[in-house]
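A further point concerns the way the authors explain their paired sequence and structure data. The central task, working out the structure tokens from the amino acid sequence alone, is never made concrete. I therefore recommend that a typical entry be quoted early in the introduction. An entry of this sort, consisting of the sequence and the corresponding backbone structure tokens, reads as follows:
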Amino acid sequence: MPIDHAIQCIHDPVLAILSYVVSVLGSFTALQLAIAIPTAVGTGQRWRAITAAGIAMGGGAIWAMHFIAMLACRMNVEVTYDLPITIGSAVVAVVSCMAGLGIAGTGIFNWGKLIIAGVLMGLGVTGMHYAGMAAMLMPADTVYNSNLVIASAAIAIVASIVALWLAFNLRGWGQMLGSALVMGVAVCGMHYTGMLAASFVPQEAGATVARGVSGGYLGIGIFVVTTALLAAVLTLSLVRQRQRATVRI
């Protein structure tokens, strides 16, 4: 069937806004946690810092934003999500962010390491997005515009390089909040460019589709849980930073 007859995706504005909010909160939390990576003493402490920042960035700022935005896409066919692939896409996002943060934040910070880490992280984010798209179960086939796919990957790589530079070069609440707002725009830009690259072509009548995860309130539920977890981690991180500053005084 021609792409001209593709199913239209209309985004729910509430979920689209929530996806941006969770991306900003995840970015801000990750920037706060990344402070501990260069100053970590010992391998164990460094890995804990990398893991915490990687989960906040990959799981909160990127994957949760992606999945909430996917649920914001309303089509006139039933859409559910394959659970193992969805979980796998989250793992890809977290691991790629941990790798990027680990490479850029260990040893002397320089542009060579930053670019390598940013490309690795950006490709991981791109892989997460298209794995998440592959998790969609519906009576339609997904056809991609290759130019827009490449554009979405480029946005992800540039956003990753910027995120890593910000993580290891900025301090202060105002700077980090501004950086998190910019990162939220970049992450959402990558996602919606990737969505624009996809056309959903209906399958022939009678095609059966496997059942997956669905639910009208799933997007809001993910937002609430992710926001609560990020807020708790951010609060704990700030309390520990204040305690360390008090001890030094």
